[in-house]
């Protein structure tokens, strides 16, 4: 048994940042629509559909990853629009629509793959996202390898979180979004187009969930399976609560969930004397524990989950 | 519509029209999609709707699916009455299956008692699996949607642990346990094709759920806690307790469904035996608005479609996920049509 500790540590940290992306992207998507009052629990299914679409488009265009991700964003936008129509315009229960959309999108993800690819002996594969070597910085020992030799989505996700933070808390637009989620009636009186804000944030949110699924596929496996998301969409909801619906805490919190996954992975490869099934349960059990801790000091947008009705008489 | 004056007739039409619209639209969309992807639409629809009634075997298969779907829908419907979403029926079902397998493999008892104990441990473990999220909801206000679904993932690995452990049957390649003792088999009410007593259990249970929800004080309080928790609280109803309690009740029913699946069909624990049952059942329960009698009707409908689609997968290669997609579309269109009619 010979372990090169240095390589293990470097690869673990590198993996930590790579795995941060799906959690952070999905959670930012849940957060942005939640900030405008819509609780969208479709994530798990939307991620699977995103992964499926990304794979199919990339595969059939001969490895065009950009086109794959763009199509997956478009599909996300389409489902966001539909989700918005049902929950904002028709004011249907957001949980019921969310559960239905979760089942619809995950079934559609599997179905599309089966229709186009079918069952094959060796699953078709597309290339994974290339590493980007940032000049000079990537030459720094250890740090360079971990921080400056990552795929583009790692950088974009971190930038997006910072951008969302700035947008939400430092701009007029952000104030408007937040006021729609806290008190839509007051926002309406102030002349904010409540419905437009809700629609736009829900669509952006769903696009991010879809993109997150596409990333999972392009960053790690390059092949599609029905188990590619395996609960990360649900865990991202817990992460959003943990991050108090704020971009920077969500970004930092995603390190915890990503860290748990990396730890489980390393424990598995090290061959500890615990049955692997119990190791693989750890992320879900940890999420339950985090949920308990979070709810003691829950902070949610005041009007979260409640449809806004202009004509309704105020309570 | 205004010419119809009879109030009951009026009400029936009001309720059924959205469903007729929803079902028609969903099948039109599915038909167009199948046409565009190059499938024979008419033949496909004939397979989907008629397969269940062509042979005795496929009719029996439809009944077996119906039992599981009916019970799991009821397991989702009971908590739904207090606006709790028990997405954990899948995990509770699997725990029930594990419970029945444990009793079936370890105990040596006379037939009647053995199978009863197997079902009882299934009920108990299903309830216990739901009791964890229920307790977290009661004590820490943890959202049951997320916690019950996390319990599902833990259940998958537990099944894998049992099915690949000391009880593993090594002959088939797929992870599964060795068969349970024949004394723990569920009695059959019909031989060749075999139908087990679960059909009676599930229908009795559904009627019992209807009575519980609509004819008892507990059911009244449960519905009140869901539709208007604040008012219910004022009237002295223990809202905080009812929701979690209904989750545990749902877990018990789902556990029984899992135990019946093991003692009535597979006679062992098989990885992946949960199939698509949980999502199918969740949509059935939502379509029926949690009303067990409506659920009974939709469970028949979806079982027929599910068996038809499985046949279609064999003959034409249309993936089984088609049932779930059609079902989800029906539900969405029903909800939309209801809003439109109210306007």
Salient structural properties:
heterodimer; A: 315 residues; mainly alpha; ABC transporter involved in vitamin B12 uptake, BtuC; two-stranded antiparallel ribbon; 12 helices; B: 343 residues; 2 domains; 13 helices; 74% helix
Model description:
The complex is a heterodimer of chains A (315) and B (343). Chain A is mostly helical. In chain A, 70% of the residues lie in helices and 1% in strands. Chain A is built from twelve helices and two strands. Chain A has a two-stranded antiparallel sheet. In chain A, α2 crosses α9. Chain A is globular and about 65 Å long. The model of chain A has no long low-confidence stretch (mean pLDDT 91). With 343 residues, chain B is an all-alpha fold. Chain B has two domains: 65 residues; 260 residues, ABC transporter involved in vitamin B12 uptake, BtuC (Orthogonal Bundle), CATH 1.10.3470. A two-stranded antiparallel sheet of chain B has the order 1-2. In chain B, α3 packs across α12.
Short description:
The complex is a heterodimer of chains A (315) and B (343). Chain A has 315 residues and is an all-alpha fold.
Tally of domains of chain B: 2
Q: Which segments of chain B are poorly predicted (pLDDT under 50) over 5 or more consecutive residues?
A: none
Number of domains of chain A: 1
Strand content of chain A: under 5%
What name is given to the CATH topology of chain A? Answer: ABC transporter involved in vitamin B12 uptake, BtuC
The CATH class of the largest domain in chain B turns out to be Mainly Alpha
Main sheet properties of chain B = 2 strands, antiparallel
N- to C-terminal separation of chain A? 69 Å
Tell me, what's the shape of chain B? Answer: globular
Task: Give the biggest beta sheet of chain A.
Answer: 2 strands, antiparallel
The helix tally of chain A amounts to: 12
Query: Which structural category do the helix and sheet elements of chain B fall into?
Result: mainly alpha
The largest sheet of chain A has its strands arranged as 1-2
Number of strands of chain B: 2
Largest interface: A-B, 41 and 38 residues
Specify the helix fraction band of chain B: over 70%
Structural class, from helix and strand content of chain A?
Answer: mainly alpha
| Helical residues, percent of chain A | over 70%
């Amino acid at each position: 048994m010979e372990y090169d500790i240095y390589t293990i540590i470097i690869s673990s940290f590198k993996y930590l940042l790579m795995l941060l992306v799906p959690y952070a992207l999905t959670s930012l998507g849940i957060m942005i629509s939640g900030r405008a009052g819509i609780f969208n629990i479709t994530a798990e299914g939307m991620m699977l559909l995103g992964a499926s679409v990304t794979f199919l488009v990339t595969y059939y265009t001969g490895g065009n990853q950009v086109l794959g991700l763009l199509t997956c964003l478009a599909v996300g936008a389409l489902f966001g629009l539909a989700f918005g129509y049902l929950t904002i315009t028709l004011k249907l229960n957001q949980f019921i629509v969310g559960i239905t959309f979760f089942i619809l999108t995950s079934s559609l993800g599997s179905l599309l793959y089966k229709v186009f690819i079918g069952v094959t002996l060796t699953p078709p594969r597309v290339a994974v996202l290339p590493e980007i070597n940032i000049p000079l910085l990537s030459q720094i020992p250890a740090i360079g390898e971990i921080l400056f030799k990552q795929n583009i989505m790692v950088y974009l996700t971190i930038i997006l979180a910072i951008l969302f933070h700035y947008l939400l808390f430092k701009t007029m637009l952000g104030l408007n979004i937040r006021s729609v989620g806290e008190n839509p009636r007051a926002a309406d009186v102030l002349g904010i187009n409540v419905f437009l804000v809700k629609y736009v944030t829900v669509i952006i949110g769903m696009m991010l969930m879809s993109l997150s699924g596409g990333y999972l596929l392009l960053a790690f496996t390059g092949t599609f399976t029905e188990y590619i998301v395996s609960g990360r969409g649900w865990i991202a909801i817990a992460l959003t609560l943990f991050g108090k619906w704020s971009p920077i805490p969500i970004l930092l919190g995603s390190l915890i969930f990503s860290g748990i996954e990396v730890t489980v992975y390393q424990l598995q490869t090290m061959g500890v004397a615990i049955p692997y099934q119990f190791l693989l349960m750890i992320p879900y059990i940890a999420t339950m524990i985090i949920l308990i801790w979070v709810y003691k000091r829950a902070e949610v947008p005041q009007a979260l989950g409640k449809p806004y009705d202009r004509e309704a008489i105020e309570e | 519509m205004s010419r119809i004056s009879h109030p009951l007739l009026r009400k029936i039409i009001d309720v059924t029209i959205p469903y007729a619209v929803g079902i028609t639209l969903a099948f039109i969309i599915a038909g167009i999609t199948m046409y565009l992807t190059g499938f024979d639409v008419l033949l496909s629809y004939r397979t989907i709707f008629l397969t269940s009634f062509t042979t005795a075997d496929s009719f029996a298969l439809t009944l077996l699916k119906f039992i599981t779907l009916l019970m799991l829908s009821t397991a989702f419907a009971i908590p739904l009455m207090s606006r709790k979403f028990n997405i954990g029926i899948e995990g509770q079902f699997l725990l029930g299956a594990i419970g029945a397998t444990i009793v079936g493999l370890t105990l040596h008892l006379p037939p009647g008692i053995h199978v009863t104990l197997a079902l009882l441990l299934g009920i108990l473990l299903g309830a216990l699996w739901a009791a964890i999220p229920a307790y977290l909801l009661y004590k820490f206000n943890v959202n049951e949607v997320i916690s019950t679904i996390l319990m599902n993932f833990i259940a998958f690995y537990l099944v894998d642990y049992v099915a690949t452990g000391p009880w593993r049957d090594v002959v088939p390649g797929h992870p599964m346990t060795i068969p349970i003792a024949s004394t723990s088999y569920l009695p059959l009410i019909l031989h060749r094709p075999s139908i087990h007593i679960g059909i009676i259990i599930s229908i009795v249970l559904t009627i019992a759920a209807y009575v519980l929800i609509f004819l008892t004080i507990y059911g009244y309080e449960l519905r009140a806690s869901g539709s208007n928790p604040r008012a219910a609280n004022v009237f002295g109803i223990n809202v905080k307790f009812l929701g979690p309690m209904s989750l545990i009740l749902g877990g018990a029913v789902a556990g029984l469904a899992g135990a019946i699946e093991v003692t009535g069909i597979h006679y062992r624990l098989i990885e992946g035996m949960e199939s698509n049952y949980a999502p199918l059942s969740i949509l059935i329960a939502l379509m029926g608005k949690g009303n067990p009698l409506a659920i009974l009707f939709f469970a028949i409908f979806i079982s027929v479609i599910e068996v038809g689609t499985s046949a279609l997968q064999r003959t034409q290669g249309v993936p089984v996920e088609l049932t779930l997609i059609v079902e989800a579309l029906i539900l969405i269109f029903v909800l939309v049509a209801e809003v439109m009619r109210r306007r």
